[in-house]
Amino acid sequence: MAGSTFPVYKVDAIVQFYRTEVLTGQEAKLFSKSDITPSPKAESVQRVFMRVLQLFRFKPECHYVMPLSGNVQHPVLYEWLTPIMSVYIRMCELLPFCHVFDFWLHDLINPKSKRTIIILSAIQNYLHFRKQRMEIIADDQQSFRSYKDRVKAYTREIKEAEKKSEKLTTIPPEQQAEDKELDAAVAELKASVQHQYQDVNAVNETVSQCKTEIAEMSQKLTQRYVGLATLKDELVSLKSHIVESPEELRNEMERMKENVKNIRMSKELLDERLVETQMLVQRVNQLEAEIQVFLKQLQDLQSSMCETYQQKEEVTLAAMNETLQKELKSLSNEEGQLKRALAMKLDKESKQQIRRQKKREVKDQQVRNIYGQYDKIHQKREEIVKMIEENNRETKKLREKMQELGEKCNRQTQKAQEFYEHLLTTVEHYDKRIESIVVETNADTLKMKSHF
């Protein structure tokens, strides 16, 4: 008792605690400091112990039950002895949990002030600890119930998602023919797209050739403009000296008309080629729009596949949680059975305590063994709780991996969009250049017409 591991409270604190937490009604009002010090009253101490045992589901009526037969001489003596012995037995079972291992019958019948203060402070310390543990257990139960509700909601959502995935994956017989037709049409479209890409490449080559021809024609036109300017100068210089014949002028005019006709024919050919190139560009734009539609469909299929994989992983995790919950239930059932066995054995000991005082040590050892089994079961339960926490951590890691994969998919889609925008900009650039070339050719033809 000297090396106690619990604090010894003051008498005022003990009286206040037992008035508020243990005793009720008139008993709390009548309980005072004089019942403990300087000479504690046996009746008040026994009453306090009975109320403490009542907190642990041992009602005061249980202490007055006689386990003997009715044909006994002087039953009044037994009736006086049974409550004291019952309280003593129960307190001997309770106080080791409070770290008091030397409780005697003398502490009930003829208590002393120091020992009663120490015992009451030990019980007070244990009740504080019990209250804290009960609050923690209540919080854990609430969290466990909330987790159960979440698991039920998740299982419902998983079942609904499985049904939806089955509906999405299974093609009805009415739409199987359409699916086959769509597959064939997609294959044909891919083949046609490849052919059209080849056509576009050929058109680009022809456009480049046309550009080179136009550049050559522009160079020739500049040379001709220079030649005309020189001829004009020569004509001006010659007119001053020589009078030209009308036949030569007519021949030169006919030659100039033939040159104009040739230029018009080349212009018409260029216009036809430009029209053909514009048609090809429109076809290419249509094909690009169709390709975008197919890309969107492929992205939707990828997202649906990712959702199905997530649902499968959630189903596996739910199965693991169900198995762990079943193990917890089995362990809780074992705990209940052991507690019932303990209660039955304790009742039998309380009824046969007077007859079996000599065998009491053997029974105490059995009780200690049972408490050891209870501690082992509690340890198993803590291990299972740790397993559940590890599973929750693994689920968090899997979710983080899924998020990383989603970010990678988004990056790839962004890259594809940037590539597509780059292609659109290049096509627009080519269109603008073709339009500028057409405008320049029209301007040159107008100049030629005005000049001729």
UniProtKB/TrEMBL annotation:
Entries under InterPro entries matching the protein: Kinetochore_Nuf2_N, Nuf2_N_sf
Gene Ontology annotations for the cellular component aspect, listed alphabetically: Ndc80 complex; nucleus
Gene Ontology molecular function: protein-containing complex binding
GO biological process, one term: attachment of mitotic spindle microtubules to kinetochore
Subcellular location: Chromosome, Centromere, Kinetochore; Nucleus
Keyword Plastid set for record: no
UniProt keyword list: Cell cycle, Cell division, Centromere, Chromosome, Coiled coil, Kinetochore, Mitosis, Nucleus
Residue ranges annotated for the Kinetochore protein Nuf2 N-terminal domain, each copy included: 5-143
Coiled-coil spans in chain: 144-171, 253-341, 377-415
Family statement drawn from the similarity comment of this UniProt entry: Belongs to the NUF2 family.
Name of this chain's protein: Kinetochore protein Nuf2-like
Organism per entry: Sinocyclocheilus grahami (Dianchi golden-line fish)
Lineage: Eukaryota, Metazoa, Chordata, Craniata, Vertebrata
